[in-house]
Amino acid sequence: MKLYPLFRLDTLNGFIGIFIGLFFVLILIYSLDFMWKKRNLLQYYFYIILTALFSLVVVFTNDLRLLLVFWGLLGLTLYLLINIADDEKASLTAKKTFIIVGGSDCLMLLGIAIIYFLSGTFQMDKIKLSFNSSLTNLAYLCLVIACFAKAGAMPVHSWIPDCAEYAPLTVTAYLPASLDKLLGIYLLARISLDLFVMNSIMNIFLMIIGAITIIAAVMMALIQHNIKRLLGYHAVSQVGYMVLGIGTGVAVGIAGGIFHMLNHAIYKSCLFLSTANVEYRTKTSELDKLGGLAKILPITYLSCLVASLSISGVPPFNGFVSKWMVYQGIIEKLTAYSAQFTAQRFVAILCLVAAMFGSGLTLASFMKLIHGVFLGQDGDNKQVWAEVSWRMWLPTVILAVVCIVFGVFAYPVPLKLFIFPAVKGIDFIGTWHAGLSTLLIILGLVLGISIFSLRDLKPVFRKDRPFMGAETTALELTKVSGVEFYNTIKELKVLSFIYKKAEAGFFDIYEQGKRFVFAIGRGLQYLHNGVLPSYLVWCLLGMLGLFYVIIFK
Amino acid sequence: MMILPLFVVIPLGGAFLLSLIGKLDKRINDALANIATFSLLVLSVFAIRYPLAGKVLVYKVGGWKPPIGICMVLDGLTSFMLVTTNLVSCLVAIYSISYMERYTDKYRFYTLFLLMLAGMNGVIVTGDLFNLFVFLEIASVASYALVAFGTEAEELEASFKYTIMSSVASSFILLGIALLYSFSSTLNMADMAWVLAQRNSSLLLYFVAVLFIMGFGLKAAIVPFHAWLPDAHPSAPASISAMLSGVVIKVLGVYTLIRIFFNLFPINKTSLSVLMFLGTVSILAGVILALSQWDFKRLLAYHSISQIGYIILGIGLGTPLGITGALFHLFNHSVFKSLLFLNSGAVVYALGTRNLQEMGGLKERMPLTANTSLVASMSISGIPPFNGFWSKLWIILACMQSGRILYAFWAVIGSILTLASFMKVQKYAFWGKLKKQWESVKEVPWPMQLAMLVLAVICILSGFLVAPFFSAFIDSAVKVILSGQGYAHTVFKMLR
């Protein structure tokens, strides 16, 4: 069978296909226990399998029409999968999600129609457009919005936090956390590298979007009290790095963006699955109610810790390597700009600062998560007995191990196998000797632990009942979850205003669009007053208009 | 044996018989009406083979030779419209078996229903302009009565508005026909096309064009002539709403516009661009108004305005791709919109309310209604792989092909808003938690289920209508439209 004009395997999509398969298998294993005895199980597995198949078609296709159809189908399966949860909030989320994702598919249709109009073909490897007309810009923007909606970059990100909070956790780990990121960023890379010849304005545009996404989403994540929602905002924030990396237009930056996409899919699905373990045992995902689970869920704790450190960009884990590559991309971009381009230089510096600062804030919010869930005092969770079954911890452990391997052996394994063939001409400014550094870090840790365990330096804990308001209270009642600490950020004068706006949906394109359309709708409804003579007057006016246009022109 | 007159004779005869003997027994009603509509469907499917073989059938009514006598013509476009109309009416008739049990005087319903069908089939097959007007009035008058069938205050008011506005349109159409008759001295459409092609275009033709755009535009509910529709369509019984939104506005409005502006008049660029503009305004106005509705059927009615806009936009483009897209969308819309109205009817049948806010979680109790309505909603929102996606894709590609980027853009925006509004329907009616008061609700009887199921299956399958092997069906219709005044030659060739 001849596949070529419709499908094409190259260095960019090959490894993405492999990872789609990996996530599919892991989620299937995980669902065996997590979804057990839930309703509509048959439909659930059916949609999960369909999603994997459709994703493979999207990744390997070489025909824009096929891409469009299967891209749209993925939106449909996502909608149906969120609705599996079968409650009020989930159905509201599903509605919002599908309006944003499906709506962006319509824009993609327009973009593809314009590409066809300009180049006369649907074959992706035959298309090479440069930005010489406003039509090309429009086509590129339409496709970029579709990618953003799928991956969850601003301003079409707002479905992801909702989806994380209300959809079944396996669905979140499967679609918004891993597959949708892979596909969205894959398409962004594909159109930016192959279909269009990027110019500096488009690059700057992508970089700004990326930087804003990083900072704004991580700031939102900092103030969340629900683990799932917190992770949801991080799923948005991390997309910023990928967009930023691809937006640099420098080989090492693009490679960093693509590598970060891969890493993100791995550690974010690990985080969501760990959260699912916690929720499975405690039936809650509120940080205030959790605590001290490290003793009970040790395996979950360790894998979650590894994933948290990865997402925060702590060496030697994989998140660090890809972020480091993105930074290098921006720095290389900076040096490429000569003195005339002060504005571009300035933007690039801002992006660099945003990316590094965002990384720090990510670490801060994950400290909150790790402390609030696994360390600290015990929460009010009485239903916990033991670690979850192997079918549930194995996927998280596998993902955590991949995180370590991709970090420590970044050059020999993932970069050499997947990324370097895909992006040509990478040269590093500063080399990161992962192996040596890992050794040093381990050495440091061992040293630290041995010093810590010396008899005299070991701290002495003393537990006593606190005395407050002329009364001694029980120790359990004075639990410090560590969440309150982060409220300080929310109460800062400048930020509190923005946070209030953000929580009221001011920055949500969905809410704003709704408001706008309903305002027009009210105007039109006012005209439809149900009075027959006024309707007849419209007809008359319409006829007069027609007479004017047809006879006098 | 000539099949052409049968398309009018069967429903007209059925209506006559029903009004005579329908009172005797209920089962006779159902049987007679369903036999009539089913035989019409079989006939229209059977008739496809003539245009596919490149043949055009012409029937001389009463043996009188046109242009003096009246003739009936079966070409590609006719056959396409006949299949669309009779397919929907056949399924609606099946649905009505159970649904109309709630109303008294079922036989009167069937009588009016068949009368309306006779009018529509007549409009499609006729080759005579005045005859077209007569059939148009038969269908319209029957539909006025059907809108008022519930005889509650709301229905009567809607019917009254519909009657007045539609009559205004009819009188303008009649005026237009009279002016054309005085200009060309003939009423036969083929003959008139031939005469108009010989003469120089005059101001009178432009005047008539305006009258026709207004008249047929009102029947098709194009903005700003649409105001009767959101009242009339929701008020009728659901099976009639399905007919009205599914086929009546298309046959009385869109088909007649196509026939006259492509086959009769010399093609005029200005009127086409006017149609394009009005179509786009309809797309946007209809969908924005639909978004803020909470009445299930009223929401669907506004979507009819919006979807007709897509069809008119495609036709206005005047390119082969645009017309193919428009006809394709016409077929698809009649399938999924009638399905949606039947769904709403099923919900009303089971719950007794049309307010979306009072529903919720019905998927649990009415799985078939919920799933078929999901299919229809995805179709109308243009989600692959359902049929609406393909026809919208065709229309938008056609817009781009002729360089009408702005129209393409608005069509896309309309599509997004359509999706949003149907997400609302799905969320409030079918997903979510089942409300306490609906716990004893049961799925509707089997005839209603059967009709909805068949329509849902067609929603999925009819995406193939533009696939290589099946496209001949639409292509034969498109060929007729693009031949322009060549229509006259083909008809005359058959008469000779």
Task: Briefly characterize the structure.
With about 550 residues, chain A is mostly helical.
Compressed to H and E, one letter per element, the order of chain A equals: HHHHEHHHEHHHHHHHHHEEHHHH
What overall geometry of chain B do the principal axes of the alpha carbons give? globular
Oligomeric grouping of the chains: heterodimer
The percent range for strand residues of chain B is under 5%
Largest interface: A-B, 52 and 60 residues
Structure class of chain A: mainly alpha
Query: Low-confidence parts of chain A, pLDDT < 50 over ≥5 residues?
Result: none
Instruction: Report the average pLDDT across residues of chain A.
Output: 84
Beta-strand residue percentage of chain A: under 5%
Broad shape of chain A:
globular
| Amino- and carboxy-terminal Cα gap of chain A | 57 Å
Strand order within the widest sheet of chain B? 1-2
Number of strands of chain A: 4
**Structural class by helix and strand composition of chain B:** mainly alpha
Strand order of the largest sheet of chain A: 1-2
Number of discrete domains of chain A: 3
Biggest sheet architecture of chain A: 2 strands, parallel
Using DSSP, what is the number of strands of chain B? 2
Kindly report the average pLDDT value of chain B: 90
Counting H and I runs of at least 4 residues, what is the number of helices of chain A?
Answer: 20
How much is the radius of gyration of chain B in Å? 21 Å
How would you describe what is shown here?
With about 550 residues, chain A is mainly alpha-helical. Chain A is about 70% helix and about 0% strand. Chain A folds into three domains: about 1-195, no CATH class; about 205-440, no CATH class; about 510-550. Chain A is built from 20 helices and four strands. In chain A, the strands form two sheets. Chain A has a two-stranded parallel ribbon. Chain A has a two-stranded antiparallel sheet with strand order 3-4. In chain A, strand 3 (about 465-470) and strand 4 form a beta hairpin. In chain A, helix 1 packs antiparallel against helix 14. Chain A starts with 10 loop residues before the first helix and ends with a helix. Chain B has a two-stranded antiparallel ribbon. In chain B, helix 5 (about 105-125) packs parallel to helix 11. Chain B has helices at about 5-20, 25-45, 50, 75-100, 105-125, 130-145, 155-185, 190-200, 205-220, 230-235, 240-265, 270-290, 295-315, 320-350, 360-365, 365-380, 385-400, 405-430, 445-460, 470-480, 485-495; strands at about 55-60, 70-75. Chain B has a domain at about 150-495. The two termini of chain B are about 20 Å apart. Chain B has about 500 residues and is an all-alpha fold. Chain B contains 21 helices and two strands. The longest helix of chain B is centred in the middle third of the chain and has 32 residues, at about 155-185. In chain B, about 75% of the residues lie in helices and about 0% in strands. At the A-B interface, helix 3, helix 4, helix 19 and helix 20 of A face helix 7, helix 9, helix 12, helix 17 and helix 18 of B.
